[in-house]
Design goal:
Radius of gyration of chain B: 14 Å
Radius of gyration of chain A: 13 Å
Order of helices and strands of chain A: EEEEEEEEEEE
Largest interface: A-B, 28 and 23 residues
Number of helices of chain B: 0
Number of strands of chain A: 11
Oligomer: heterodimer
Largest sheet of chain B: 6 strands, mixed
Helix content of chain A: under 10%
Order of helices and strands of chain B: EEEEEEEEEEEE
Strand content of chain B: over 45%
Helix content of chain B: under 10%
Mean pLDDT of chain A: 95
Distance between the termini of chain B: 41 Å
Mean pLDDT of chain B: 94
Low-confidence stretches of chain B: none
Chain lengths: 114, 116
């Protein structure tokens, strides 16, 4: 079965640089979520999209933005990177029309800011 | 506000034995979903099992079962016949039902180590 695809898997950036993370959800899933997991921390919700419209926003810095495109893939854009942005970034997708509405996660993008 | 609490930072279990990972939650909403995810050292987040607040029976998925005690607001994960590959971080999560789609709220996690 198809899973959530994230790219790149690893990314190394310098401070003040820009990064773009990509996510391809499971086909026919209508909702995409982005989470940030710092070292030794639990995942924290950043933002979600339902049918290409932003549906909820968490503790996402103003330096970050995200969107979902017509083909349902999503991108998380991060500008003016700081050392504290180093984390594992997950994308997840779900089908809200199902009773359980399970979120399936991609393998994550590990971002290191030097 | 909704909250998930996992009080066991680390657990050890002997191979082939059963282990219970604790999870308590707090919500005022009568409708919610509870999830368990496994995160191996490689980093991916793997869905294990789901329990809905209105489900009459405890959820089971292979060697995983959920001991759901609604009145006590607990949703403990039971892993039977532990295997070395079960060594990982385990997260309990709750779905926020107030928003379309519902973001997940995670507990702090429990690191399980399976000894041969």
């Amino acid at each position: 079965a198809a899973g959530v695809i994230q790219s790149p898997r690893h990314l190394i950036k310098e401070k003040r640089e820009t990064a773009t993370l990509k996510c391809y959800p499971i086909p026919r899933h209508d909702t995409v979520y982005w989470y940030q997991q710092g070292p030794g921390q639990d995942p924290q919700f950043l933002i979600s999209f339902y049918e290409k419209m932003q549906s909820d926003k968490g503790s996402i810095p103003d330096r970050f933005s995200a969107q979902q495109f017509s083909d349902y893939h999503s991108e998380l854009n991060m500008s003016s990177l700081e050392l504290g942005d180093s984390a594992l970034y997950f994308c997840a997708s779900s089908s809200t029309g199902t009773a359980k509405n399970i979120q399936y996660f991609g393998a994550g993008t590990r971002l290191s800011v030097l | 506000a909704q909250k998930i609490t996992q009080t066991q930072p680390g657990m050890f279990v002997q191979e082939k034995e059963a282990v219970t990972l604790d999870c308590t939650y707090d919500t005022s909403d009568p409708s919610y979903g509870l999830f368990w995810y496994k995160q191996p050292s490689s980093g991916e987040m793997i869905f294990l099992i789901y329990q809905g607040s209105y489900d009459q029976q405890n959820a089971t998925e292979g060697r995983y079962s959920l001991n759901f005690q609604k009145a006590r607001k607990s949703a403990n994960l039971v892993i039977s016949a532990s295997q070395l590959g079960d060594s990982a971080m385990y997260f309990c999560a709750m779905r926020d039902v107030y928003n379309q789609g519902g973001k997940l709220i995670f507990g702090q996690g429990t690191e399980l180590s399976v000894k041969p």
